[in-house]
Specification:
The complex is a heterodimer of chains A (239) and B (575).
Chain A: H1 2-23, E1 38-41, E2 47-49, E3 59-65, E4 70-79, E5 84-89, E6 94-98, E7 103-109, E8 115-121, E9 134-140, E10 145-149, E11 152-162, E12 165-174, E13 177-181, E14 187-190, H2 195-201, H3 206-215, H4 223-235
Chain B: H1 2-27, E1 31-37, E2 41-43, E3 47-56, E4 68-74, E5 80-87, E6 92-98, E7 106-113, E8 126-133, E9 144-145, E10 164-166, E11 170-171, E12 176-181, E13 188-196, H2 207-216, E14 234-242, E15 253-257, E16 266-269, E17 275-280, E18 288-293, E19 302-306, E20 320-321, H3 328-343, H4 346-350, E21 351-352, E22 371-373, H5 384-390, E23 395-400, E24 403-408, E25 422-425, E26 428-429, H6 434-437, E27 444-450, E28 454-456, E29 459-461, E30 464-469, E31 484-487, E32 496-497, H7 502-505, E33 516-525, E34 531-536, E35 543-552, E36 557-566
Parallel strand pairs in B: 2-8, 11-36, 25-30
Antiparallel strand pairs in B: 1-3, 3-6, 4-5, 4-7, 7-8, 9-20, 10-12, 12-34, 13-33, 13-35, 14-17, 14-19, 15-16, 15-18, 18-31, 21-32, 22-27, 23-24, 25-26, 27-30, 28-29, 35-36
The chains are: A alpha+beta (239), B mainly beta (575).
């Protein structure tokens, strides 16, 4: 009995020594390889009725930078109102809108681990709002790709007097814009989800497209169905 | 009692697993190196071609871990003569370097290693000796190595695991030689050299001998600190210490940038040992690196010490003998051959430098629209104080305790921010405002301003002022005591050796004398067929050796040697 206890004690000592040999060597050095996120401090000076963000809470996300480097596990929010990706820096709790030109793509994950994939696309128009490109949610990729800009627009405002102080609240509304990317890299824009508007985008293949919608009993106004339509169009050779 | 027995056995199994894990943890990532050089004796002014093999110490397969290798050539006084950084890809890297004409005649040691190998101690480094003779040395009274070990491979006609066959054993000058490497049933990557057998003795070891030697005979001397394997590129290491006490400083932020038209930055935080490390991408190749410490009240007392990756703490003390009288004729002939080749510029025809396209991504400090001011659009102003007042009213310079301080208007509050913005001069993060104060509109080409608070990783700056000058004024400014500048040498890409065909490149009247007939650092053996290569003999009538060194995909070392004679039917004496 004693013999076993001594042996056990001896082995515990050896075990402890062996483990320190392995771990003692690794120093606590700042991550050598991690890419650095860059951005301006994000101020929220106005008050809104409604939500400016695609994701109300901060979600974990990964970012593919324009340098090709990937940054993992950052707390992110996408503002549809400003079309900016906002990063909550854990170390100083500052909110920063990331330099748009530095971000190529990002993925954010909701609580149920569902991924939402966004990328920055450059449209042919160079208006000041689109100069740096826009962030769009990637819904379908293929011969025809479907991207949705999760745009939030100010549609009005309400003034409220409290203690003789005027406060202005801006009304926000979700106004998504749909972009269909053709194999020729041309983007077709759909501001309104309607059957007619979609058919107008493909005048030469109007009949085939109508058949797809009719045969599969799809409602263009429903976003899930709209995604299905593009997926089905990708399976048909003529598109 | 039974329960205790059972517990004991479970614990025993647990221990065995732990011990195994421990061994694996210690061996995983450990490497050994082998350097195959085209020859063992050189004349200063010639190129030394080399192939570096980096192998996993356990499996002996080519290592996928390290991407950077280091080669140091040092004198008998342990002074480094050449420092070469080699790009390693899938355990192999090659290059070449011209031996400077200023090298003194004597024995030199070549060391080859990776950063990860430093963890096992310097005994693990690959070492070999070569002889270098100065081209203009007439006395030739240098000492050679006194080792009794001779180059065994020079005496064997064929050996190792690969079989070499040449179509003839005797060739005439300027004749084509076809060499066949018999199939090995192994896919392998080898390096091949064909050169005149030097009369100077050497201590050449084949790759197999070297691996056995490095694996068996060495007692690992643990490094004092851990060296991260350079899996993605060169890592710049250094420490921040108190300049008086030399005590390490923890949590100091070390900033790195270099001269560019784009403001660039990288940073690292020191650990408890004051150690920091920064990954240097291809962007930093051949550039001067500006390192400084981010502003803290104590930084004037701190000092950055950058580690020299080529430093060798252990001295080399070879036993040398003075007797080289037997080799003088050979050396004089070699000197003459180099003289002829230099005179006729045959060396230049023999090599070509491949263009290397590297990804050069600038670590931009910002990538967003900025306010740009061109001082040339305004009246001439003598210094930045005037420029701030006259051209950029949203920037002000105040004097506090005889020190200048730059402040920028906060875009939200519309008031001057108390904290200083990040200031860049010619792309470099400036640690001292005085460096920009003296600059007037004649020196400044462009000023870029960002008023918003900026994040760069975990660092936050109260705006940015970036100044680009016409003549890179940053280069002539003095670094502060807590700053340091280091040159980051280019990676050696080397020049490839082209075996010349004397019939197409030379006329019969032009001398064509060579001691190195062929060098190929990357010959792939398919494992299913014979591999052949060809080259031409020269007017240098001598005995030549073909040396093949390499490693198969499964980690089998491959070495082979063969020889042939080049002679003239009329006059077969060495000239």
């Amino acid at each position: 009995m004693k013999r076993y206890i001594y042996l056990l004690f001896l082995l515990i000592c050896i075990s402890a020594r062996a483990q320190t040999n392995v771990y003692q060597k690794v120093p606590d050095i700042d991550s050598t390889y991690s890419a650095k996120l860059t951005g301006d401090f994000f101020y929220e000076s106005k008050q809104y009725i409604g939500e400016q963000y695609f994701n109300i809470d901060w979600w974990d996300g990964d970012i593919l930078l324009s340098t090709g480097q990937k940054v993992y596990g950052k707390l992110l929010r996408y503002s549809g109102l400003f079309d900016e990706l906002i990063w909550l820096n854990n170390s100083n709790y500052g909110k920063f809108k990331l330099d748009k030109l530095s971000v190529d793509e990002f993925w954010i994950k909701d609580k149920s681990e569902k991924d939402f994939h966004f990328k920055r696309i450059n449209l042919s128009d160079t208006t000041s709002t689109h100069r740096l490109g826009i962030y769009v949610e990637v819904m379908v990729t293929g011969k025809l790709s479907l991207y949705i800009q999760r745009k939030i627009s100010v549609v009005g405002y309400e003034d409220e007097y409290k203690n003789k102080i005027l406060s202005r609240y801006y009304d926000l509304k979700s106004t998504p814009i749909y972009y269909i990317k053709l194999p020729s890299n041309i983007y077709l824009t759909l501001n309104k989800q309607s059957r007619n508007a979609l058919l107008k985008l493909f005048p030469k293949n109007k009949n085939e497209l109508s058949k797809i919608i009719r045969d599969n009993r799809l409602n263009v106004r429903a976003e899930d169905d709209f995604v299905k339509i593009i997926e089905l169009m990708n399976k048909v050779a003529i598109f | 009692m039974r329960l205790i027995k059972r517990m004991f056995f479970i614990f025993l199994i647990f221990q065995l697993v732990l011990t195994n894990c421990n061994i694996q943890a210690q061996t995983n990532g450990t490497e050994i190196a082998y350097l195959h050089t085209d020859r063992t004796a050189y004349i200063a002014g010639e190129s030394i071609h080399f192939k570096l093999y980096v192998l996993d110490a356990v499996s002996k397969k080519r290592s996928e871990v390290s991407k950077v290798g280091y080669v140091v050539l040092r004198t008998v006084n342990s002074e480094p003569s050449l420092k070469i950084r080699v790009k390693v890809d899938a355990g192999k890297g090659s290059g070449s370097v011209v031996l400077p004409d200023t090298l003194q005649s004597g024995i030199y040691q070549i060391l080859a290693y990776t950063s990860a190998m430093k963890n096992q101690g310097e005994d693990r480094f690959f070492r070999k000796q070569i002889t270098i003779v100065n081209r203009f040395d007439k006395a030739l009274d240098f000492k050679i190595i006194g080792s009794t070990i001779k180059d065994s491979s020079l005496t064997q006609v064929s050996g190792g695991t690969a079989k070499i066959s040449v179509d003839k054993s005797v060739y005439r000058s300027r004749e084509k030689v076809i060499v066949r490497l018999g199939k090995l049933d192994l896919k392998a990557n080898v390096s091949v050299s064909v050169f005149e057998i030097p009369k100077i003795p050497s201590t050449y070891k084949t790759i197999g001998e070297s691996i056995t030697d490095l694996s068996v005979n060495k007692n690992d001397k643990k490094a004092r600190t851990y060296y991260s394997p350079e899996t993605k590129g060169k890592i710049l290491r250094g420490v921040v210490v108190d300049s008086k006490t030399q005590q390490p400083i923890k949590d100091a932020i070390v900033l790195l940038s270099c001269v560019d038209t784009i403001p660039n930055l990288q940073y690292a935080v020191t650990n408890a040992d004051g150690l920091f490390q920064l990954l240097l991408s291809d962007y930093y190749n051949g550039k001067e690196l500006y390192l400084t410490i981010k502003d803290t009240p104590d930084r004037s007392k701190w000092q950055i010490k950058v580690e020299n990756e080529f430093a060798q703490p252990e001295r080399w003390n070879p036993s040398l003998i003075a007797d080289n009288s037997n080799y003088k004729d050979y050396i004089v002939k070699s000197q003459n051959i180099v003289y002829i080749n230099k005179s006729y510029q045959i060396d230049k025809e023999n090599t070509y430098k491949p263009k290397i396209e590297s990804e050069s991504i600038c670590p931009r400090f910002y990538n967003c629209p900025v306010e740009t001011i061109l001082p040339s659009d305004f009246m001439p102003l003598p210094d930045f104080l005037e420029i701030a007042v006259e051209i950029i009213p949203r920037v002000r310079i105040v004097k506090e305790n005889n020190n200048y301080k730059v402040q920028i208007v906060n875009e939200l509050t519309n008031e001057f921010n108390k904290n200083s913005p990040a200031i860049f001069l010619d792309g470099v993060f400036v640690d001292d405002v005085n460096k920009i104060i003296q600059l007037g509109t004649e020196q400044i080409k462009k000023i870029e301003i960002i008023e918003a608070e900026r994040a760069f990783g975990d660092l936050v700056f109260s705006g940015v002022i970036s100044i680009t000058t016409f003549k890179n004024e940053i280069e002539s400014s003095m670094p502060a005591s807590h700053s340091v500048r280091v040159i980051n040498d280019n990676e050696n890409s080397g020049a490839n050796f082209i075996p010349l065909n004397p019939d197409t490149h030379q006329s019969n009247s032009t001398p064509f004398v060579k001691q190195l007939l062929y060098w190929n650092p990357n010959l792939e053996l398919s494992g299913t067929n014979d591999t052949s290569f060809e080259f031409y003999t020269s007017d240098n009538l001598a005995k030549y050796i073909i040396k093949v060194e390499g490693i198969s995909e499964d980690g089998t070392p491959i070495s082979a040697t063969s020889s042939f004679q080049v002679t003239n039917p009329i006059n077969n004496t060495d000239k």
